[in-house]
Specification:
two-stranded antiparallel ribbon; alpha/beta; VWF_A; 3 domains; six-stranded mixed beta sheet; single chain; 12 strands; VWA domain-containing protein; vWFA_dom_sf
Amino acid sequence: MLGFQFSDFKPDEKKNTGFEKLLDIFQQLLLIFSGNVSEALAYMNDLDRQYKLTDDKYGIADFIDELKEKGYLTEAEGDGEMIMTPKSEQSIRKRSLEEIFGKLKRAKSTGNHRTAYTGSSDENSSDIRSFQFGDSLDQIAMTESIRNAQINNGMGDDLVIYEKDLEVTDRESNIQTSTVLMIDISHSMILYGEDRITPAKKVALAMAEIIRTRYPKDTLDIIVFGNDAWQISLKDIPYLEVGPYHTNTVAGLELAMDLLRRRKTKNKQIFMITDGKPTCLKEGIRYYKNSFGLDRKIVNKTFNIAAQARRLNIPITTFMIAQDAYLKQFVHEFTEINKGRAYYSNLDGLGGFVLEDFERNRRRKVK
């Protein structure tokens, strides 16, 4: 008789060890404290005293020893201060990907982005069309072609198939995509008791990991912008800190477009995580700053750069993590000029919005 056989449930022992539970908390704290191991561990001690994270069998000192043994921490030369290792940095990227985007299965064919154009490529679509000169033999849809021949030429024993009877499975063009992710590190990203920079760092780490694992042919450049803008490497992200900066959105966009000009790919896009208010321009060696509102001089320059990106067919997607009505209006106008997209996201939903738009932009039409 068919049926089901049950057995006792045995939870994943690895994920329920004291080490694994504490590692998850520790990695969160490393991002919050910008990679400062000492501060993260000190805070863990406070949490342990308050919430009893450990017991008599496994304590924080045991956890620290195991972090060293497993290669997550090492001692810096000279002062002996504990610092993160590349293994620790990689682990934080993977954890950010799982937290924000879920446990995504690696695609069978990696490195491809779909565009609206059809033609010669690696992947068949579900569409059937008439044969055209240049189509390969392996594209011929035999069932549909034979049916057309029977209808057009009769059902005799000697079936003849003409070119007009042939139908083929269409193919979709797969191309690489170049993305620049911009992160606002101005002082407003930690104002009003809200930590906006840590979620932004998590999104950047998760984006880097998803591109590295699912789309290895793509490129991702990451830049930060305050009074100025500069490019950072992947390993720098956990250590990012907000500075005493204004928001020079123009400098960030100019650098992003300069990086994309060097890329030979057709699909290009900019993702910008910001609180939505540009407050600074650089004029020669002088900074023009106005933190009290949307200064017309700064706004117009920002609108000009949005129009320039549109002419280069570079959409800008703005992820705004502030809810002020006048800032929403500015972002709306900026987006209209660029013909890009804007999301007014809370911090919890930020990662999901980024992934959704990243996947959507993979399918946009490239001129």
